[in-house]
Amino acid sequence: MSRPASGILSRLRALPAGVIGAVLIVTSTSVVPAVAGRGGAAVPLVDDPVSYVDPFIGTTRGGNTWPGATRPFGMIAWSPTSTTGDQTSTGAANGYEYNVTRLRGFSLTHVNGAGCNPGAAGDVPILPHVGEVDTSPTADTRDAKYASTFSHANESARPGRYTVRLDSGARTDLAVSTRAGVADFAFPVGSAANLLFRTSNSLNGSEDAEISIDASARTVNGSVLTGGFCGRRGNGGGASNPNRRSYYRLYFSAVFDRDFARTGTWKDATVTPGGTSASGGEGYLTGADRAGRGSGGWVGFDTGADADVRMRIGISYVSLAGAAANREAEVPAGATVDTAAAATRAAWNTELKRIRVGGGTEARTTAFYTSVYHALMQPQTMSDRDGRYLGADLQVHRLRPGQAAAYGTFSGWDQYRAQIQLLAILRPDVAGDMAQSMMDFAAQKKGIWDRWLHLGAPTHVMTGDPAAPTLATYAAMGVRNFDAREALDSLVRQATVQNPDALSDAGCPGQCLGQRPTLNTYLALRYAANDICHCWGGAAETLENSLADFSLAMWARRAGRGDLYRQLRPRGDYWKNTFNPAVGYQAARRADGSWQAGFSPSTDVGFAQGTSATYTWMVPQNVSGLAALMGGREAAATRLDGLFHDENGNWAVRGGNPLRSRSLRMQAMPAIPTGWRVPPTVVRRIPAPVSSRWQPPRPRRQ
C-alpha cells in the first residue's frame, strides 16, 4: 500500500466567523497563527479544547451515547451500565441513560450512536458491591441486590476518565489507554467489599462466557462469546433473526495490586463461594426467556486496614494472551488512574486541536468540541499491539504491510454523509486504514461489503450500499493508504453481479441480507420495486444505490478507467425513476410500474428512517436535475426553506405540517447522529444543498 499523499490538505485553513466564531482547521498542531474575527480584530483560539468536552451530552433523549472513558478510536470504552430493574435491558441504547440513576456495573466495551435499544457490546459489567455475595447475581433478575443508586452530584466524566461514588459507599475511578485501563475502587472501611465480574451479561446477551480466578497471581481472566447486534428486537423474524448470533469473543485479563480475601463464582441460580472458575452464557432472548441465566465470578478484599483496590485490565478480540499483553504494554505495573488519564487527555487534545476555534460562547464551544469528540470515538481499534485482529470470518488475521491498525464498527448509512469527510480531513491515515479494514472484512465474507459493521462483523442494518460513496469519498479527498484498485474492483463486482445472499428476505425490512438486494431486478427495472426489493424501502434503496453508482463512476473516471465510468454513470440517474411527477416527490413504486397508493409527503412507506419530504432531497449528484423536476430553482428553494421553517420563519423541526411531519426528527432521517454536528444541528442531516445554491443569501436565522 502507498502512504498518504503529502499534499492531502493545506496545512492551515481559516473559515469565516459564524455560529461558533472563528474556525481554523489545522492539519499540524505545531503552528497556530492569529485569526481575524469580525471587524478584523484578532480572535484568540481555544488552547485546551479537551476542557470543553462534556461527555454527558447525548446521554439522554435519544442521543445514544455514553459518558465513560475511552481514547480516540479506542478499543476499550469503559462506561457505566444503567438498570431500570431488568437485568436483560438497560432502558437505554448503548447502556447508559442519564435519567436512570441506578447502575449494575462498568462495562468494558460500547458503541457510540447506535439507535436500537440496547445497541451492542456492553461487555463484562464489573460492579464494586458492598455486601456479601450469598446468592447468585444472575438470579437477581430485577437488579434489586447487586446494583446501586447514585447521584449525579457524585459523578464526573471527562475524556479518558470517569468517576462516580455509588450510594452503596463504593467509589469507582476509571481511566483508559487504547486497549487497556486502570481502575481504583474505594470501599467503606470495614465493609464486605467484593468486585463482581458479570462475564455473560453483555447488553444483547451471550452464547457463552468463561471466568478463571487465580488468587496466587491476583488475576481474573475470562471471555464472553457474544454478538446479537439489534437482534433482540426480533426485527424481521423474531428468534430466527439472522442477527441473533455470535460474531466475536472478547477476552479480558485483570491483575490487582493486593491479595484476595475470598473468591466465588456463579452459574444461573447456583452460587459457589470459594469457586475459581465458571462458564455459561445467557442466550439472546429477552425478559423471562433470558433472565436468571449466565455466569460470572467475584473477588473480595479485606477492608479493615486498607479499603482501596487498584485493578489493571486489558482486552483483546484475539486471545487471552493478547489481552494480557495489551495490558502490560499500555498500563504496565506502576500505572495509575492519574497517569493513564493524563496520557489519554493529551491524546484527545492532540486530535481536537486539529480544529481550532475561538470567539464563540462557552455553550457553543462546548457543543462544538463535544461533537468532534463524539465523531472521533469511532471507528474502533480492533488489532492488538502485535498486529493481530479478529476478521469477519472469525479467524485471526494480521495487518497488511504499512497498515497501522485494523479498525471496526462502521455504521455506513449513518456516517457516509458527514463523519467520513471529517475523518478524511483530520486523520487521513486513520481513514485509509479504515478503508483497508473494510475491504479486508469484505474479502473475508465472500466479497460482500456490509452496510453496518459491528467490529468487523456484518449486521446487515439499514439500506443502500454506503461503502461505495465512503471509499469513493476517501479517494476523492486524497486518502491514499489503502489498495484503491482492489477496493474499486470489489465494489463494482457487487454492484454488477447478483450475489445469491441478496436474494433472501431474511432479516427484512431493517436487516436484509446481502449488499445489493435483488440486484438483477433493480438493473432490469432501473429502480427498486417496493413490493419485491427485499429492502427497507424501494424509493430509499433507489436513491441510495443511485448515489453509490454515481460515486463509483466518478472514482473510476478519476482512476482512468473509462469503461467502468461509462457503465456506471447512467445508473447515477436512476433516482428519476422513483420521482413521481404527479405529486412532485420521491415515492414507492411497484414492480408493475404503478405508484403505492395513499401517498403524502410525510409517508415513510418506501423509505428508511425517513419520509418522502426528507428523502426527496437526496440527490447531491444532480442538484439541477432535481430542481428542474420540482418546477425550477425558485420552486425548489421555496420548498427547501419550508422544510426547515414554519410560516413565521422560525426553525421548525417537528410536526405541524405535512412537509415537516416526522421529517426532521433526529432519528427519522437519511442519517442518524454521527456526533459531528454544528448548530443548527438539523442542517447537516438533510442530504441536499441549501437554498443559497439557487438564490442569493438570505438573512441567517439563529
TrEMBL record:
Stretches assigned to the Glycosyl hydrolase family 92 N-terminal domain: 52-316
Gene3D superfamilies, A to Z: 2.70.98.10, alpha-1,2-mannosidase (1.20.1050.60), alpha-1,2-mannosidases domains (1.20.1610.10)
GO biological process, one term: glycoprotein catabolic process
InterPro entries linked to this entry: 6-hairpin_glycosidase_sf, GH-type_carb-bd, GH92_a_mannosidase_put, GH92_N, Glyco_hydro_92, PNGase
One matching Pfam family: Glyco_hydro_92
Single Gene Ontology MF annotation: peptide-N4-(N-acetyl-beta-glucosaminyl)asparagine amidase activity
Domain of life: Bacteria
Membrane-spanning segments: none
Entry GO terms, CC: cytosol
All residue ranges annotated as the Glycosyl hydrolase family domain in the record: 323-652
NCBIfam families reported in the protein's UniProt record: aman2_put
Protein name: Putative alpha-1,2-mannosidase
Organism for this UniProt entry: Couchioplanes caeruleus
